[in-house]
Amino acid sequence: KAGVTQTPRYLIKTRGQQVTLSCSPISGHRSVSWYQQTPGQGLQFLFEYFSETQRNKGNFPGRFSGRQFSNSRSEMNVSTLELGDSALYLCASSLGGPPDTQYFGPGTRLTVL
Amino acid sequence: AQTVTQSQPEMSVQEAETVTLSCTYDTSESDYYLFWYKQPPSRQMILVIRQEAYKQQNATENRFSVNFQKAAKSFSLKISDSQLGDAAMYFCAYRRVGKGSRLTFGEGTQLTVNP
Questions:
Q1: Which are the contacts of B3, defined by CB distance < 8 A and separation ≥ 6?
Q2: pLDDT digit string, tens, across residues B72-89
Q3: Closest by Cβ to B101, choosing from A56, A88, A109
Q4: Is the CB of A43 inside 8 Å of chain B's CB atoms?
């Protein structure tokens, strides 16, 4: 089975711009979660989508949003980029039911200048 | 809120030796899952091992095993016969049972394997 894929792998944006990241889960997985990884804050949960519905959300401002499509692919959008949004964004997919082990993609490295 | 603590920012081990990475967590839940993930320089997060809290038996996966002490809220990872490819950042993670749960990660332990 193919693993979780994320596109693009690298992005460079400037402050104030917006960006969209994409995640394709493992075939058959219905849940997609997003995490932000930075040296200062570590790994932080952004949100989780299951069957096109957001069912859990972390403590991030409204500039961070996401959605999930009927084929379980997910996108994450960040509007009005700030320097502090520079991070590795990881996507993880799971079946959506117990034990619900999450499998991660390779990540998207976002740099905001 | 659940918290996960890894008190060893860095560890090193000689090739072929055994090393143990520590993890403690705090939760009021009785049913949950614990995980160890490995993140090599490629930054790909790789699942190493999973433990269900209701199981008393410690999980093992080849050279990797855990020591799960539920009462003490401790979850350590033992790597036997360490190999150069084991060098990575290791993260301990907690996830409660139920819909809408999330992974809570520790700060990570950077493992160096010396030849």
A1: B25, B26, B104
A2: 999 999 999 999 999 999
A3: A56
A4: yes
